[in-house]
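Sequence only, no structure available. Ideas?
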Amino acid sequence: MTVKENYIRAISFTYPDHVPYEPVVQWLRYEGDMMWMGESGFDPWGVGWESVLDDFVPMPKVNPLKDWDKVETFPMPDPADFRLREDARYLLKTANREEILLFALQPHLFLERGCYLAGMERMLEALVSEPEATQILLHRLADYQAGIAQRFLEEVPDIDGVQLGDDYGSQRALMISPDVWRRAIKPHLRRIVQAYREKGKFVSLHSCGHLTEIMEDLIEVGLHIVNPVQARANDLDEWGRRFGGRIVFHGGVDTQWTLVWGTPEDVRREVRLRMRQLAGDRGGFIIAPDQHMVIPEANMLALYEEAARSGRYPISYD
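Reply:
I predicted one. Tokens follow.
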């Protein structure tokens, strides 16, 4: 069984050989979404970005949406202008599809994009104080994202899946109440997920932080995979008990302390813990760091070695 076949079995709950830890998925990015690593300037939405550290995404510093009364006429990019980035076009030409999966990358769907446009504090407050205006904004963003999904499916019809991105959680709780999330975000997320699922694609959601109160909703809208399964923001033992077998967990190994500050033995111990909590009998777990951080080489090696040793099915839970 190849690592690609094993990965597909893991995300399909069809009895993989081992818990995947190998880099199997590569992402296709498109122009116009935002600035990326090391980039500064204005994106097509009018958001101003500033690169702080070259190895990380830049920070939004200019928020162009100043008046909620003008949300219906605020200028947005046209999905018809969609084009793949140069690195995506190169990947399409060179990727060995026998060994890797290609996922479209469609980040910053709704809540994040609204925070970039209006500023985080203004956007989160307005979801309660300006429900009509924010709903207009979110409907317009959903139309845009549906257009991007359609273009990905037209331009690269043989993609294997998509990674969507929209952060909903903070360290201890959701950034908005579950009820507000269900009213304002959930219908639009369902629309984008179903656009890909109707074409037989795997759908992953990257959403940082605490998500427990909406995990049932994420399963309901049709997601296959949730990432990064942030270890210190969620009770992963509870996640395994309540949601295991119905959604794939990708991530789970703590970067807030263990991978960055711990010893290799700390890492090995946590890998075994996550196997016990999240690796179901039929699959459903991809083990990885729960955030993109600068991690000591010895700790990453410990993660891979312990994953290879203790992640083979049937997994021992001793």
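The mean pLDDT is 95.
Hope that gets you unstuck.
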